[in-house]
Structures are given as structure tokens and as C-alpha cells.
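Morning!

This is the sequence you dropped in the shared folder:
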Amino acid sequence: MRLRTTIQASRLLERLEEALLLVGPDLIVQELLSEAARELGRGPQGERGILGRPLREVLAPWLAPRELVEVLPRILSVRDATGDEGITLRGLEGAATAAMRSAGLTRYYDISIRRLLTDGELRLVLGVRDVTERLRLARALETARAAHEMAMAVLRTDPTVLRTFLQDAASSVSLIQSLLHLPARTREAFRDKLGRILLQVHGLRERAGLLGMGPIAVQAAGFEAALESLRTRDDLTGDEFLPLAVQLDELCSLLTSSSQLAEQRAASDAFTPQPAVSALRLREAELGWPAECSKRLQALVQRVGQEKEQLAQLTLRGMESVPECYRRNVDYLLLQLVRNAIEHGIETQAERLAAQKPAVGNITVECISRPELGVEISVRDDGRGFDVAPIGRIAVAKGLISAETLPTTDPHTLLGLIFRPAFTTEGVEGLEGRGLGMVFLRELITRMAGQVSVATKSGRYTRFRVLLPDASGQRSPGSAVA
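The structure's back. C-alpha cells below.
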């Protein structure tokens, strides 16, 4: 019955301008003010069924449960305000089953709330407008813009780098599809499933951002946000994963169009005469990755630093020491570590001056070839560092260590817990927001059979050190804390 009511309400609101309701301070519907509202009143609920009913019950057939929960406090805030101001809540999702959402049949509404004082009595005017078609048009325009941006990104990116990225992205999508179909029965199984999907989407977003693939990065970011939202819920069911399939399809569509553009570009290049390559050009090609990676990291520090008013100077040494077989993964690794340093390590200029530090921070990236060991990569910032004590409290709360052993646990051991998937960095100064990045970093290094260590001093510095094995040999994967 509710679904039939929802569909009827959606059709009426789509056809008519706006449904206006007069609501008393007790949130009881008193009067229908517009033809749209009267048409709605002649629908399945009936006008008598709407008048005199609590607003929550009247809105329930229109709005998704989570949207309804959000709207009611906002209505109360307008009722309890002192002025004449009102609010408009835009793009609220309509009531629908998970199957309707996955099929793209959900409708969307704008809801406006205004105060009305007549003869000293406070009432509210509530308007409901169906904006589904408007949002669809906006999305179509955004899709066209994204297609143009994607074509430009494909043309700008080195063909070999682009091909590698698309291959990696296809592997990530395939894994995500498998994880979405993975059975889960318990709350812990659902959370583990979400965490594994989130890790893949996070890595895809980071790589797309690194290469300037803006539309893919934006789509992946939206996917990531939806996953994070589900992780906060305690009532997860299999139906909650159905909308994720829609977002994955949209991501697949972007990747498919990118692959087609890359193929068209490759076919065009095949018929374009190529100039003879001199020894100097060969040498430039050989040194291309260090220069390009350095350029991307410098741009990252400058952009993020300006956004957050956390300025830093980036120094890079020994980039040419990274073996070719590692360079693609080291690209991602350095992106994560340098971004962490500028976003979470370096203080604002005011904070640094108050701490008697130079206003501009320092981030140093150093790559050193270690004979018979491999390559060592160090990323150090002279920022705020972080306090180890909260890590211990969170580790106890997560069951990673016991409260009895906490007082005798070595600080370096506690520090190593930040790489554990079950650990959350929320509330840890200097690590706030790094949690998923640390898991991604750990898994990336493990895939390369490497080791990672971290050292810090509160108010002074944080240093991550990664040791990758000799490219001609193999070492056991693991992590260490120094």
C-alpha cells in the first residue's frame, strides 16, 4: 500500500507545480494551500486523511526513512527560530525499495519550510516540489562535461602510464564486483566486506587523482562516501548493497569510455609518422619518471597547502634510485605519504610561529639504493607529530591489546598499530583522517614484499620509512616499527 501511495504522490508532484501545506506548531496539517496539495489530498490518502494528521505520517509516503529523520528536526528548528527566516532542503530522496533505487526509479524532492505569523499565532508553510527531472538534466549536463574532461585527460597522459592505470582499474573493479556478491550474514562480515571494497575504491581514487583523471576520481570519491556512510550504520542488510551496484556501473562506464578513447588515440598514433629518437631523447625518456613524479608531488604540496593554509617546501632526493619495476606503486605510495604530511603533519603558519618554528614547513622525500637489500624510501615532515597515548586507548577499545598490558607496551609497538585494518585514527592528533590511507599504504607495501616503519616525536616530526626488496630477489612481507 505504501509503495502505491508513493508512486501516486510522485506522479502528482511531477505533474503539478508545488504542494503547499499549512502546518500548526504541533506539526499537525491544518490546511491544503495549493492545487497540487488538493490534488494530492484526492489521492490514495484522501484530503480528510491528510488534514489533522501529524506531518511525519503525511511525509512518510514521499520520503526515504533517513531523509524523513533529517527533515523533522530542521522543521522544528524553523518553528523555534526567532525571525522570519526559512530553509529549503534540496534533492531529498523519495521513498522507494532498494530495487527501485538500484533501477534508478527513485524520485527527489525539494522541501521548503517558512514561518507564518497571523494574528499572533505561529504556523508553518511547507512546500514540496518534485525536482527529479531537473536533477536528471543536471546529471546529463555533468556527464557531458565529464566526458570532455576525460577526453582531455586521456590526451594529456602518457600512453604507457594510461594503459597501466586502466588495467589496474579494471582489476580493482573486477575485485569490487566479486566482493559485492560475497555472502555476508553477520554484522562483522558486512563491515569486513565494506572495508575491503572501500580499500579498493580508495586506491582507485588516489591513482585517478594522481594522473589527473578528474571524472574518475570524483566518481570514486562519491562511491567512497557512500561506503563510509554504510560503515556507520548498525542495521546493515544485503539490500543496502544494491545502490552500490549502480555507482559501480557508473564507474565502469567512465572506465570503459576512457579505454575506448585510449584505443582511438593508440590507433591514431599508429598511423602518425614518428621522428627519429636521438640518444638525448632516450636519456630524457629514461629519466622521465623521476621528473614527472617530482612535478606531481610538488603540485600536490602547493595545491593542498594553499587550500589548508599549511605551507611547506618539498625536497626530493634520489628518485632515480627507484627500480623501474617499483615506480608505478611508489608513485601511489609517495602520493599518500606526502599528502598525509601536508594535510595532517604540517601545522598552519600561525601554529608554527607560536611553536617557534619557521612559518613554512619542510617535507623531505629521499630514496636510497641499499646494496643487496633493495631501495629505502623515507618521507619526513617537521610538523606536529602525534601523541602515542591516544593510540593505546583506541587499541584497547578495539581489542587489539588488553588494558592490563597497555602500561608496559612499548610506544613503538603501539605506533605500529596504526597499520592494522581494525584501528581507527579518529581522535588521534596528527593522525586524524589517515586511517584508511594507512591501511592502503600497508597493503600496497605488502604486495611489494616490503616493510614499513614509522617514527614520531610530538611537536617535532613524523617519518615513514619503507624498505623494498632488491628487484632481483624476494623478501618476506611485513611491517616494522622503529
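Headline: The domain at 140-263 is CATH 1.20.120.160 (Four Helix Bundle (Hemerythrin (Met), subunit A)).

More detail when I'm at my desk.
O.
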